[in-house]
Amino acid sequence: MAIEQFSKLQEHLSEQIVGQHALVENLLIALLADGHLIVEGPPGLAKTRAVNSLADGIDADFHRIQFTPDLLPADLTGTDIYRPEDGTFVFQQGPLFQNLILADEINRAPAKVQSALLEAMAEGQVTVGKTTYQLPELFLVMATQNPLEQEGTYPLPEAQLDRFLMHLEIDYPNAASELEILRLNRGEALAKKKAPVTTISQEEIFTARKETLEIYLAPVLEQYIVDLIMATRQGEKYDDNLAKWLAYGASPRATIALDRCSRARAWLNGRDFVSPEDIQAVFHNALRHRLMLTYQAEAEGITTNQVLDRILSLVAVG
Predict the structure, then answer these.
(1) Residues 149, 231 within the same domain
(2) Distance separating alpha carbons of residues 258 and 282, to the nearest angstrom
């Protein structure tokens, strides 16, 4: 039953976010894998609409935060408010206490704000003063970065990027999708209200997460995942180019991310086992933000995606 509901949700999201199939699929994978997603792409590609539409389809609260250089950690976590009538302090929750968070242009906020968000992502809690507050059990952050503008930005360090389950790159839709977007926008402007959406409860989401963890992953594919990660750390065993391109490989978080994401993808496709294609399909998004290239690779114009392509071509299954 759960897979049928998620299929309907995926169909609804595909109707709302036209021409961005990868964004829709990976948003659902992040939800099922209990991880967070960073999306990089030009403005106007329905990133906000994607999270909003997801919130419409599940029993969850949604909040969008526009990151700016003058943002403070308390603007995310909340703060203690003084009540003069009885001389006490009462904690006022910030937007991080919602289920779905869109951290828009996360690289425009200074390090203290980024660290407050990343603590919430990693620990499921926020600390204000001497008190720690637990966040909702269902908590998903989709952060965005604009690759076109670098003025006034604070790039996330690699150690912080590693906290994200996936890093997704999206681009402009094709001409056919652009026409469909135009018609969809006009239709929504004429409509008086949104069409009703079947809502998935949080309990059903937790059940689906448990089912994804029970998806069968053959020992040979477990080894395949490990071999892919080891190739990022010991490139010289596979190829001289990998050795000169990679300064630092992926952490064990990448191994876990590959496992969780490939299971979630298999479940979304109605299978009770993981295939090599599932691992390969999520490989780039799970590792794109976890590698550090050498100066030589940058001088040669080698991108992270090219390095990942090379690893997939060199590491065999079994």
Answers:
(1) no
(2) 7
Measure the CA–CA gap between 204 and 211, rounded to whole angstroms. 10
Contact indicator for 197, 12 with CB cutoff of 8 Å: yes
Mean pLDDT of 13-36: 91
Half-sphere CA count of 229, side-chain side, radius 13 A: 19
Residues sharing a CB contact under 8 Å with residue 44, sequence separation 6 or more, in sequence order: none
Q: Are residues 128 and 266 in the same domain?
A: no
pTM for this predicted structure: 0.90
User: Residues in the chain, how many?
Assistant: 318
Residues with Cβ within 8 Å of residue 79, at least 6 apart in sequence: 91, 92, 94, 128
Q: Distance between CA atoms of 275 and 199, rounded to whole angstroms?
A: 30
Contacts of 174-178 with C-beta under 8 Å, sequence gap 24+, read 174/19, 177/18, 177/19, 178/19
Residue range 103-122: mean pLDDT, rounded? 87
Domain count, the chain: 2
pLDDT for res 192? 61
Could you list the residue range(s) of the whole structural domain that residue 176 is in? 2-190
Q: Say which residue the tokens 């001389």 belong to.
A: 87
In whole angstroms, what is the distance from residue 123 CA to residue 117 CA? 10
